[in-house]
């Protein structure tokens, strides 16, 4: 490289000076200031600002100036000292600082822990409770005896057993804020050394302790296992009284394939084991997961009927009891083994192994056989509905299970629902001596898409009508299920829809005639007793149809509209006030007819069962229902659900004793059940005729019926079962004690109860 001469520093300096001088020269104000100074270096030294400052400062006394100088010097020295500190020392200082902070946080932690310290009595209590619950004793006792652990937090020390208690103590040294930092450093080094020493020593102590703890835990685990085994052996021995040989079932391959896809099917082992080992089991799983159809079959196959006992399943509604018994019979490939029993109607035989019934029927049976000795298992389905009878049943069964277990003749109680408030049924009041086992199956077979309205419509009947028209005219195949509040509304919508989509044609007539033959065959099977024909009221207060069935069937012949045979034409409702739907365009040409069927509780069983038959060829089925279709039912091919969100409910005033039916919003649990009807055989859609904000305002669960009904009938029932003090009865949700007392007095006044509280025999016939 060529040797290029470097520019001298002198030159550089002179340049900068030149620049400065130029600047200064430009300032006319200071012209005189520097005019006497000829040297350029001197020009560069004092800044214009500094000079001004100096002149502006007031003159101070010499002492003060000296003090100031001293202070400045001290600062310089400390800064110099800081600079002098080696990296190592700086690090040490930092660790000291951190340790101090840690110490402070530990102190505050200990202080806050002291607030929660238990007194000696409570601690003893806790230990004894843990022992009673057969839990593995945790080595708190060991730690409690450890003198190293701070006294004040011994009682809450269990969570830090495996941490190093000693170490925590070692770190817990005194704080002294006035200490010099150098001293602190020295102490820290000493502490560090001490800590290291202790760390070396610790493992020995902990190892010995851990060995002790591990052996103790092992012992206790072994003991627990042994105890559990002994308990189970005893339990299984007792179980042998009701549970026999496994029963093999030969099913249709198609059915077997469908069953295997149900979420509950994968849980068969767990469910059966839980039922074997527990007196009370609560099964909570999504709608359509297979509870109602599969659990009775699991129990049948595992031998719960092998010793001649029955598996009883209660349903809140007749239609569910009948349709479920048919379905389970088909799935078992032996319909004779599965029967139903509703009030005044049933197909129970000596061959029956699984019996579906309404809760009123089982309650009636309890009056003659309080121990339910014919049954090995009782399943309460759809317990979330909280009907008065199902609540009473659960209360009674909680005691029957206990008594039967005592007699070494166990009865299994299973409570099932998709939308259940578990706390209602797991309370100690209900099951004081046995804790129900809860099984949850969180899966659904088919998805259901929910659709809310942007704004809740004023007239839900009109909204339902328009929604059904939209679905039928624009959406692909699939049956529609509409939920309205009551029978009157069902009939109104039915009339409107059949007017818009009339069902005329040979096919329909042929289908109706065919249907009539089928119905006759079913009817022959059912054989209503003559007593039932004459009775006008059901046990649960519902009136049964007293018209001869033949009358209904002849209507099927006479009418071409498909709805007439549902009894709509002979009804007295007035549809002259219905004007909505005028803004809808006429239905498109070539649209398939809509086959509309009603479904409500007062409809005869045979008519209710019609919704399960396939609709006439080339038509779309539309079922218009009240909340009877809300639970349990699987109506074939339902793909669209239209939910008005309304139901008719009884409002009861316990003070005046007056009750009346009003239309209310349903609960969120009911809305879930309603939309669940869509995803049972395929993926579906649920159209909710209310906004999502409105849905959020719904109550989560429906109120138990027992709170909305006069309790007179209930008191009469319980008295008939010789229950003396009804206020002590284990209701899942007890009515007000005053209400029970008033009902009892009223029954006495009416002459239904004698002065000693027994039922006068004539009142036993209901
Ligand atoms: N009659 C039927 N025809 C065809 N499939 C049926 C019928 N009944 C039930 N299923 C099928 O079995 C599945 C399980 O029905 P099941 O009634 O056992 O469910 P679930 O869990 O009890 O529901 P929910 O809580 O609504 O009562 C349904 O989703 C459906 O796929």
TrEMBL record:
Domain Helicase ATP-binding: 272-438
Catalytic activity: ATP + H2O = ADP + phosphate + H(+)
Protein name per the record: RNA helicase
Residue span, Helicase C-terminal domain: 514-722
Feature: compositional bias, Basic and acidic residues: 17-31, 187-197
Phylogenetic placement of the source organism: Eukaryota, Metazoa, Ecdysozoa, Nematoda, Chromadorea
E.C. designation(s): 3.6.4.13
Pfam families named among the record's database cross-references: DEAD, Helicase_C
Organism: Panagrolaimus superbus
